[in-house]
Amino acid sequence: MSERGRIVAFVTVVLFVWTLMHAYVVSRVWGLMPTAISKRWLLLTAVLLWLSYPLGRALAHWKLTFPGYFFEMAGAIWMGALFLALIWLLAVDLVTGFGFLLTEAYKPLRVAALGLTALLSVWGLIQGLRSPAVREEVVVLRGLPAKLEGLVAVQVSDLHLGTLMGRRWLDRLANLVNGQNPDLIFLTGDVLDGGAEEVERLKPQLARFRARFGVWAVTGNHEFYVGLDRSVAFIESCGIVVLRDSAREVAPGLVLAGVDDLTARREFRVDGDPLQKALASRPEGATIFLSHSPLEAETADKMGVGLMLSGHTHNGQIWPFGYLVRLYYPYITGRYAVGGMTLLVSRGTGTWGPPMRLFARGEIIRISLRAASPRPVKSPASTLRRP
After folding, report:
1. Are residues 54 and 189 in the same domain?
2. Which residues, listed in sequence order, are joined to residue 192 by a DSSP beta bridge?
3. pTM for the full model?
């Protein structure tokens, strides 16, 4: 299938699922409407909400900035609320046997489900719009020269910059990241969500990241979606080096390697062995490996990587979606021991789609590197674990 065909198929599936979600929620709210007029208003509202997100994306594509932003933001918030409504209304259906059991409680429980949806939507919106938290990690990196003891790296992941991300939010993030006094800054994919032309207005803020040994990035699946070459060109125009199945020595005895997103490669059927290409002939030294998707961790460990940094999963972003994400990505968030390698998976700095998070806000990870330790080092913010 051609790239255009894949995009058309993807959009068709998304709109079909989007429609089914609306149909289910409307069918459950329908019985709560007391009059025929209120039911007509329910249908009209559902149609407008169904249109909101795709219309917002279309208007942004046509460079109608203000109405595009309004509809896309409204649609994105509704997307999160719709998901929560579907989850809680489905829970009521399962508990009551779709109304055949606990018949008297069926209607009050649906009302309670809608009330809980509203409460969690507001809570999630507040969490999603807050500045990211700083997660502290200490990592003993095998092979790190003693002279690089105490080097500080900051991981930023899944910014999803596009029409919904403003200059003020990105300015605050740049201040937060630069305030960690990093020696290295890593952007582990999904830097962009809109096309490069849509984020041109954010270029001064994205170019503000500063670190002694540079700012480095890898592509995520969304860079593939909006145009890989154009996305890479835009990111590099901001003074950020993008590693594409390659490795570089960033300081004597310290190597940084990165690959184009492994999930997108499978989706777009990109041939090749990116880890082999990036790691097999790398310079000698302790190795930090950037991969947007937390896949192939065992392979990276066998190839001598000491620290792997990933994102992509958002930890599900809105509970309980994380349980579905875990079916495909067992390393979903936090810190893991994979053989002799440490894997850190960020829950994301920004948000995708709904500007919501339940129950933890976005994060950046401040990593202090250690050359050696007489005893195992325990991170102050988390512990090593296995999936």
Report:
1. no
2. 161
3. 0.91
